[in-house]
Amino acid sequence: MSQHNSPHIVVVGGGAGGLELVTRLGRMLGKSGKARITLIDRSATHVWKPLYHELATGVLNSNLDEVSFQGHAKNHHYRFVRGNMDRLDREQQVVHLAPLKNDEGKEVLPARSVNYDYLVMALGSVANDFGIDGVGEHCYFIDTAEQAEHFRQAMLDTFLQINDASSQQQRELAINIVGGGATGVELAAELTRASDMLHNYGYTDLEHSRLKIRLIEMAERILPPLSEKVSRTVHKELKELDVTVLTQTSVAKAQENGLTTKDGDFLEADLNVWAAGIKAPDFLTTLGLSTHAKSQAICVAQTMQSIDDERIFALGDCAACPQGEDKAVPPRAQAAHQQAKQMAQNFKRLLEGKSLQNFVFKDRGSLVSLADYDAVGKLMGGLARRGVFMEGIMARLAYASLYRMHQMTIHGFTRTVLTMIADSFNYYLKPRMKLH
């Protein structure tokens, strides 16, 4: 079969799962011409989503860690199309893209369409505002790299105002973070770290004591999906960083200068960040595919095929994949990583005329980073059936290795080692924080 007539696999979404999938498919099928692989994403670059909290605080310089889709595609045997999917024609097997516009709203590319033989939806998830009044207008989100950069600039501007205030006007900088999951916890720690670093970079009036961070969680404890021991340890660490943790606290309304709780308390703040709950993008409910009532994720079988259309697949947070009776694959980065690996093998089997294998999630545990201060988590597998609790330097090394594993998947061993060497030089040659 010629490459021109080979099956066309289109992946929409270049997050961790989507990029790892096209990388594997490119190596397995694209290089040999057994299939044509196309990745569609609205952005020109990829940043690993678990690092967004570092991007939002400026600790991560996106110019150093982002991956150009165009350049990556050339090296890994797939095609990249930049665009935002706005419609699906299942009958004709066509993905329609909206006109591409620049930051000024000027049209760069007209509406286009991409034909497919097999389609994979890998659009990830976004924070869930639960329809609460004012959240969309008065809270920052960090669901995308662009949103993280937007918050970073607002944070720097606010820090600058606090630093330049006269001694008579000096006040605290208050930040509300709604959502006591991993994103909220890690952001709270990184903000503390950012204030310390800014103090060292000339923001001499920005004392640590003048930063007031509130972490607001609706449940009885932070990190509800994780073990109570991990939750308790992280709570203690945050208190030592002067982060105020409010549990069993629900937000009723968001305003420009703070949040109102359901109990009627007003939590004044300079910045509000919403990191509570997750759901698949609203757009998925318009495709004519069955979606989960709460998460809006595409309902798939264990083969990760849509229950409505066997030519359409979904992975990661935008897939509602069953895992035994009354259970589903959790929306976690490790699940997307495992699904990408399994799906690549399944496409190989599909083109060979073999049956697809069911996806079985293997929980490897969870780790939470508290910036440079600490890391806490629980690792699963091996001889320790109940898991091994970790904190301190070993947990920090294990957390750092997760990103290196992602880099190994999308770049290979040699490029990852070279990247690690380059990172070591940049640590000493460049500021440890993006200051502009």
Automatic annotation (TrEMBL):
It comes from the Bacteria. It comes from Aliidiomarina maris. Belongs to the NADH dehydrogenase family. PANTHER family: 64 KDA MITOCHONDRIAL NADH DEHYDROGENASE (EUROFUNG) (PTHR42913:SF3), APOPTOSIS-INDUCING FACTOR 1 (PTHR42913). Coiled coil: none annotated. InterPro entries: FAD/NAD-bd_sf, FAD/NAD-binding_dom, NADH-Q_oxidoreductase. This is FAD-dependent oxidoreductase. Residues 8-340 form the FAD/NAD(P)-binding domain. GO terms for biological process: aerobic electron transport chain. GO terms for molecular function: NAD(P)H dehydrogenase (quinone) activity.
